[in-house]
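Exercise 4. Each item below gives a protein and its sequence. For each, produce the structure-token representation.

Item: Arabinosyltransferase ARAD1 (Iris pallida).
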Amino acid sequence: MADKTPKFVCRKSLFFIFSVATLFFFLSWFFLLGSTDGSSFIVQSPNPNSNRSLSREAERQTPVRQQPEPSNDTCDPKNAILKVFMYDLPPDFHFGLLEWQPEGNGVWPDIARGIPAYPGGLNLQHSIEYWLTLDLLSSALPGRAAPCAAVRVLDSSLADVVFVPFFSSLSYNRYSKPKPPEKVGRNKVLQERLVKFLVEQEEWKRSGGRDHIVLAHHPNSMLDSRMKLWPCMFILSDFGRYPPNVANVEKDIIAPYRHMIPNYANDSSGFDSRTTLLYFQGAIYRKDGGFIRQELFYLLKNEKDVHFSFGSIRQNGIGQATRGMHSSKFCLNIAGDTPSSNRLFDAIASHCVPVIVSDEIELPYEDVLDYSGFSVFVRASDAVKKGYLVELIRGISREKWTRMWERLKEVEGMFEYRYPSRKDDAVQMVWQAVARKVPFVRLKLHRSRRFARFEDGSKPRRFSRFDIRKH
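Answer:
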């Protein structure tokens, strides 16, 4: 019995020492982990070809190197999000329509010395073609003192899109009717010449026209050629007079009208100083979807604090509308012959909260701009219910109206056409909208080539304008 005791004690001592050592080992490991906060593990890149490895601590402490922000005041072509090739069409298609005469064999005016004037009046509503063309021409000027989302490139293989500089809205407004001894209006002749020119170009043959930008902002512009140019990206005011296989929100751009009413500069008005609750002045008797204007006129004409009357640009109509919108809390934008009208953009410029009654309307940049923050939308079927519209508007509180009014002042610059353009004005916003369509254009173009035959074993065959009709 005495012989076994030392062995027993020895075993107990060894077990005790082992237990203490184990305890110290785990305690030291715990404190080691706590001191590093679990951050010293190396995170390997999942890419087997990459030797990058960053500790979480280093990633947290090392400042991220940001790309330089594009200047708001100057054009840096390297920061442009869109490269645009522009056809050198004869002046007949663009500035020649403004009665500008080229010098020698030139095609474009020397905009460094001055720009041709655009006609006023209702022509201005659809003048986007003028502003975009000027912006592209000026993007090549050295030291341009304006931002540029898009820059002109002279090599079409480097371009994201191809711009067709035809002032189609101006052509429609001025030259639709034949002038003796003409038998066909100049507008129709120009469209025929344009289609013939386009389908002969290598740029068109490469893409079937899918990457071409055609401006047709006036609802009746390009009326004789739109069906032939359907693969193009149209820039429109709405889709009201287009079949969906020719123009749709998937491939085309909705751009704002240029407002007719002057901006409300230094607007210090408020809820109480705008004494008219709801304002509308314009054409009342319209066709197509515009019948709702007549119905609303009879419902609202005798309502207190509501101004609903006929008006036009004639007899100081713009001055009257300016005073009316500037003194109103809400401004009606009702569908007319087409789903859209310039009145919406007059309301925005006036900081008069738009009330939109147009079920089929499409709005500019709505993929990045939430109109519900500064507009009220009412279904046409609800608007024509007796008492519904006025009760809805009267129910909007002072606080909610003020938030929308403040938001209008924040976004109004997005609807301004200017030369030179400014950061995030209408010119830059439209180019940005085009840039967002480029991936879709490339997708459709690449898909159309999946089963294309090859002429010589290396180059894809050229498209005719009917090759990609299914889309």
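Check: The domain at 276-415 is CATH 3.40.50.2000 (Rossmann fold).
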